[in-house]
Design a protein that fits this description.
- The complex is a heterodimer of chains A (301) and B (318).
- With 301 residues, chain A is mainly alpha-helical.
- Chain A has 2 domains: 1-48; 89-300, MetI-like fold (Orthogonal Bundle), CATH 1.10.3720.10.
- Chain A is built from 16 helices and no strands.
- The longest helix of chain A is centred in the middle third of the chain and has 33 residues, at 91-123.
- Chain A is globular and about 80 Å long.
- Chain B has 318 residues and is mainly alpha-helical.
- Chain B is built from 14 helices and no strands.
- The chains are: A mainly alpha (301), B mainly alpha (318).
- Chains A and B meet through helix 2, helix 5, helix 6, helix 7 and helix 9 of A and helix 2, helix 3, helix 5, helix 6 and helix 7 of B.
Chain lengths: 301, 318
């Protein structure tokens, strides 16, 4: 009895001690340690986009006069820069080229990665882990050390200055990534499902088409949107392999065609950057979760 | 009756054609499945990689097949102060930018690991710099770093009054170098933060509860729980980050093109300038090949970090 009464306050004190220890998590402290730094991060990470957007809608008079106009706001928004971009340059052409190249390269890499990942993860042959390792190593080869010999290869194959030069070379960095991602996805699909289908007399290709692929659709979407974004953003190959102005992709064209002379048309440059970023940004906003899962999935593997 | 249905059943079973049988042959199927990926990677990755090493030992120029000249390209580069400048800046750029990215990215990941309202929206916003084409955000930075109309200078001089002259971001050596590093860190933070956040979420909360009951401080919880458990994923993310920072091209090419006075050349931009723009394919290839030892070093780093993971899981005490 005395023990019990002696214990009673003690347990109570520990019960109150826990919230007391959690007191570091008070509102004010939480504000300072979490929300303020987080707000700074968000502002800094988003500021260049805000600046890009605001610059592309400012008339030139406002753009270069910070004394009279507040640089963070637009006094009289204008579509001049965008109009100039769309109707006086080959910008729509560049957009179409970029889109076409990105879609074709994505399709090609998805097709080859699905087959390769299926062979490595599901057909399980001797040395399949070495093929997997080889593909992982291929991912570690950056485009910067490949572009010079690739330029000569592309030239030898007669693809120089054609969109095919890009469609065929982008898979060099897309296929390793997609294959790696899809191997992870295929791993998560129970092998028993395939065994059942095999017993029921399905052929390997039927299994791939009717069982494995439908179950791997989230992985396919992740790999697809990721490839699309990477192809859209690609710069160095496109800079090295394409020469004629109208065949360039958006990132290269903005830098090489819109930057002329010593006076930069910042309004048009920013408008071009904004329009070039929008397709990926819109695409991204629809599939955020897939992006995050493919990013983290690729890292975890 | 049963016999009839049995024969019916056997009759409706489709006879596999020779094509069907061929597609069911495992060896053939493996070959067929690996063909597209293997073909593409061989023609456009393995072959150029070998060709690049070969080109580095020749004096190939654009439009002229080269002769084997042995180590001449490398000997020339060893004497070239510009090359050493590029090597120095590549290493410096990689070291400082990686440190900055991981310090800030880890901080951001730890912040995001708290209970927050609208967490998924926040995560989506934070990844944005990483999604947008690098060149396009680099052009935005170029405009932010403009000598006359830089918004940062405007803030510092006209609003806050902490300086009397405008910043000269890209006009001289060291400011230009730091400006590029800042832009690289800005672009790299989201990737690091989101990957590390994924790692943080795999750490069991019960560990923190146990540590909290033992009276640990916040720093101790970070030092003895978060950090060791995060180490494997940290090592992988860092390897990727180091490789792609070291071979960075777009940012420097877009903002400074190696200037002022070639002080911000990375090895990749120097290779481009010499190889494609200057037409000296052999010399450009030699610069690219000189990057390989650094990349191998980074990959080995990843390999040993992964090996470390094994003993960490095996031994509970250490």
């Amino acid at each position: 009895m005395t023990d019990a009464t002696a214990n009673q306050p003690e347990t109570q004190s520990t019960a109150t001690a826990v919230p007391e220890q959690m007191a570091w998590d008070s509102r004010a402290r939480r504000m300072v340690t979490i929300y303020v730094p987080l707000a700074c991060f968000v502002i800094i990470l988003l500021f260049p986009f805000y600046w890009m957007t605001i610059t592309s809608f400012k008339p030139n008079a406002e753009l270069y006069d910070y004394k009279r106009y507040n640089p963070f706001l637009i006094d009289s928004p204008t579509l001049d820069h965008i109009y100039k971009l769309l109707f006086e340059t080959a910008y729509p052409r560049w957009l179409m080229t970029t889109m076409g190249v990105a879609v074709c390269a994505t399709f090609l890499s998805l097709l080859s990665s699905v087959l390769a990942a299926y062979a490595i993860q599901r057909l399980r042959f001797k040395g399949s882990q070495y093929v997997g390792l080889g593909i992982y190593l291929a991912y570690l080869v950056p485009p910067s050390i490949l572009f010079i010999p690739l330029a000569t290869t592309v030239y030898q194959l007669g693809l120089f200055d054609t969109p095919f030069a890009l469609i065929l070379t982008y898979p060099t960095f897309l296929v390793p990534f997609c294959t790696w991602l899809l191997i992870g996805y295929f791993k998560s699909i129970p092998y028993e499902l395939e065994e059942c289908a095999l017993i029921d007399g399905a052929t390997r290709l039927q299994i791939l088409r009717r069982i494995t692929l439908p179950l791997a659709v989230p992985g396919l979407i992740s790999a697809g949107i990721f490839s699309f974004t990477l192809s859209w953003n690609e710069f160095i190959y496109s800079l090295a392999f394409i020469q004629s102005g109208e065949k360039k992709t958006v990132p290269v064209a903005i830098l090489t065609e819109l930057v002329s002379g010593d006076v930069y048309q910042w309004g048009a440059l920013m408008a071009g950057s904004l329009l070039g970023s929008l397709p990926v940004a819109i695409f991204y906003s629809f599939f955020v979760d897939y992006y995050v899962s493919s990013l983290t999935g690729a890292v975890k593997e | 009756m049963t016999a009839v249905t049995l024969t019916d059943w056997t009759r409706t079973r489709p006879q596999p054609t020779w094509l069907g049988r061929l597609f069911d042959n495992k060896a053939f199927l493996i070959f067929l499945c690996l063909l597209p990926a293997g073909g593409l990677l061989t023609v456009f990755l393995t072959y150029p990689l070998g060709l690049g090493v070969w080109l580095a030992f020749t004096d190939t120029k654009i439009g002229r097949t080269g002769q084997w000249i042995g180590w001449e390209n490398f000997e020339y580069l060893l004497e070239d102060p510009l090359f050493w400048k590029a090597v120095f800046y590549s290493v410096f750029y990689t070291a400082v930018a990686t440190f900055g990215k991981f310090a800030l990215g880890l901080w951001l990941a730890l912040l995001l690991n708290n209970h927050l309202p609208m967490k998924s929206l926040l995560r989506a916003i934070i990844l944005l710099p990483w999604i947008v084409p690098t060149v396009l955000s680099a052009i935005a930075f170029w405009w932010i770093y403009d000598p006359q109309f830089s918004i940062i200078s405007y803030l510092a001089v006209d609003v806050l009054g902490v300086r009397t002259t405008y910043f000269d971001f890209l006009g001289s050596t060291w400011p230009a170098r730091w400006s590029l590093i800042a832009a690289n860190i800005w672009r790299g933070i989201p990737f690091v933060a989101i990957s590390l956040l994924a790692g943080l979420q795999t750490i069991s909360p019960s560990l923190y509860e146990a540590a909290l009951l033992d009276g640990s401080t916040a720093w101790q919880r970070f030092r003895y729980i978060t950090f060791p458990l995060l180490l494997p994923i940290l090592a992988i993310v860092m390897t990727f980050s180091i490789i792609f920072t070291f071979t960075d091209f777009q940012l420097v090419y877009a903002i400074t093109r190696g200037g002022p006075v070639n002080s911000t050349h990375l090895m990749a931009t120097l290779a481009f300038q010499r190889g494609i723009a200057g037409g000296e394919l052999g010399e450009g290839a030699a610069i690219a090949v000189a990057m390989i030892p650094f990349l191998v070093f980074a990959t080995l780093f990843s390999y040993f970090a992964l090996a470390r993971r094994k003993w960490q899981q095996g031994e509970a005490n250490d």
